[in-house]
Amino acid sequence: MKTRDKIVFAALEQFNEFGERNVTTNHIAAFLEISPGNLYYHFRNKQEIVREIFALYSDELLERFTPIQTQKESLALLKHYLDSIFTLMWKYRFFYANLPEILQRDEVLHNEYIGVQEKLQTNLVDIMRAFVSLGLVAVDEEEMKPLVRTLHLIASSWLGYQAAMSPKTKITEQVIHQGMLQMVSVLKPKATPQGFEQLQLFEDGVKAIHT
């Protein structure tokens, strides 16, 4: 792996473990056992590293939430998207946990974030339409965008909300699963009998992990 990539992945690991605001470029260099000068050869400052991580996140986000043109069984399709939410929230948890502060201090990153999220919301509406066509949810066109916006709001702000509710909150897989269950609770009232059954199966599976 190239040194530049090692720096990015080491920073991601450190940001997730200790919080982005608590990690400096010197911490990252020490973690990799390289000189600060070597790190600065690849990145001028920590913000450039954050932007690089965001680029990785954006690519993965849009790839995972591109509507799938497939005959995949509805339960498998539903699980694919819900699992993707968990994977991204866990892999890039520092970003979700401290999103407003990270964006407020970097206008370029903020504009990039807005552009990516606009693309994502378009994809999410198309995915919701696919769920309607598969008979999983009963949502008319007027309800589509508000429902997607609510689900998107929960996913993007859940970790920040948890941190705000308790200064001692540690981000764990269980905390992220709670966010997923919150999204399922929003979907359930819109589910068809088939969709409700599949959401319940998913919900039971998540709860079983932590019992």
UniProtKB/TrEMBL annotation:
Residues 24-43 bind DNA. The keyword DNA-binding applies. It comes from the Bacteria. Residues 1-61 form the HTH tetR-type domain. It holds the Pfam family TetR_N. InterPro entries: Homeodomain-like_sf, HTH-type_Tx_Regulator, HTH_TetR, TetR. The keyword Nuclease does not apply. Keywords: DNA-binding. One of its GO terms (molecular function) is DNA binding. This is TetR family transcriptional regulator. It comes from Vibrio caribbeanicus ATCC BAA-2122.
